[in-house]
Amino acid sequence: MTIPNAAANAAPPEEAGQAPIRPLAASTAAAPMVAFEAVTKRFGEAGGKPGFTALDGIDFTVARGAITGIIGRSGAGKSTLIRLVNGLEKASSGRVTVDGVEVGGLSEHGLRDLRRQVGMIFQHFNLLTSRTAFDNVALPLEIAGVDKKTIRDKVTPLLDLVGLGDKAGRYPSELSGGQKQRVGIARALATSPKLLLSDEATSALDPETTQSILELLKRINAELGLTVLLITHEMEVVKEIATDVAVIDRGRIVEAGSTFDVYASPKHETTRTLLATALKLPEWLRNGLKAQPSVGDRVLVRLVFFGETAFKPLTGRLVSELGSDVNILAGGIEEIGGKPFGSLVVSYSAAPDVVERANRFYAETGLSTEVLGYVA
Ligand SMILES: Nc1ncnc2c1ncn2[C@@H]1O[C@H](COP(=O)(O)OP(=O)(O)OP(=O)(O)O)[C@@H](O)[C@H]1O
Question: In this predicted model, what pLDDT tens digit does every residue of 141-183 receive, in sequence order?
């Protein structure tokens, strides 16, 4: 879900001028950029009616300078969570703090201040169609009352930064989806925020463009030291860019940790399901997966290789251990957070003696495995 709010990053006219943007609070380097403490959000509470609980007891922090992903299925509560950070929603109970300041306690004035410090990008870009790329990026500064020369000095390098130096005069209708999102990113950076929120920013883009936008976000994070909090329903996005991840399911964080750890050994059912989608198994195979085996079925297992095991020729040994019965269905070696990480999906007979032999092999070799399910 995205919220059209083109001026979300706009600063108030009365004090922006050319003055430097005020910090929200005296920040301590070790403190998290964002903290949720026992946060609950209910919608539709009225006259003693309990309402719908969209977020339930969220405890979670976003480290300063990190790229943190929140992943979950549709309706899990991702957008609600992110809207609590920039004060578009208020927690029913608990506290949300940004750089040590409690968002729920801010006045209108304080909220405007907060929104200059927190940039946001959206799935459908939310650009003003009647304005050029330059004028869209300039908008938050115009609203803040910044003078024309300062705006030019700020917007031109931002357009260069996002690779659109030659598209300043183009209207959104003349830009591709990826270029529109680049304008959205430049606009979000116009007020020099310390936190960037991304609401499904690549969901409307093709895989190649997604990749280039994620690369840009990584570069901005590294070069500007900007903390990024992104929500997505795609594990691929998290894997590609996030250093840390939290999995949200029906309003609760069910698993959180470094992306590498969560990806290598998912603990919660929801995480496993999201991962199985990212493995890009053929659709017929994914749809045919069962939780329990029947006689004659095959078991689908994801083998995870990392650290010491990453480059050992263990697959060949597994094949010789189980005989020619092993089928390799998907896999490859990639990097998560700079660490080599391999994953291979294999299938073999789910007969108890075969499964026992395989499990013995995994125990001996230290291979990490995950049963994805069973197929006929
Ligand atoms: N203003 C609202 N009033 C009532 N219910 C709401 C409101 N906003 C969200 N909800 C409900 O809260 C739950 C979480 O919604 P949310 O939009 O946060 O989920 P999401 O994970 O972002 O989903 P999606 O990926 O589909 O956008 C949903 O069941 C939704 O219907």
Answer: 999 899 999 999 999 999 999 999 999 999 999 999 999 999 9
- Is ipTM over 0.90? yes
* 252 ligand 1 Cβ < 6 A: no
Instruction: Tell whether ligand 1 has an atom less than 6 A from the beta carbon of residue 167.
Output: no
What ligand 1 atom has the least distance to the C-alpha of 80? 18
- What residue's CA is closest to ligand 1, atom 14? 77
- DSSP 8-state symbol, 273: H
Of ligand 1's listed atoms, the one at least distance from the Cα of 200 is 25
Residue 3 lies in a domain: no
From 239, 268, 297, give the residue that closes a domain: 268
pLDDT tens-place string over residues 300-317:
998 887 766 555 677 778
d(Cα 354, Cα 352) in Å, to the nearest integer? Answer: 6
| Ligand 1 mean position, distance from CA 95 (Å) | 20
**What's the gap in Å between 54 CA and the centre of ligand 1?**
7
Domain that includes residue 343, residue range: 279-375
CA of 3 to the centre of ligand 1 (A): 12
Distance (Å) from CA 52 to ligand 1 centroid: 10
For 194, phi then psi, to 5°, come to -100, -10
What is the distance between the alpha carbons of residues 264 and 342, in angstroms, rounded to a whole number?
9
Looking at residue 310, its pLDDT comes to: 58
Q: Are 63 and 69 in contact (CB under 8 A)?
A: no
Q: Are 323 and 189 members of one domain?
A: no
Which of 249, 268, 287 is the C-terminal boundary of a domain?
Answer: 268
Phi, psi for 14 (deg, rounded to 5): -65, -20
Give pLDDT, residue 311. Answer: 56
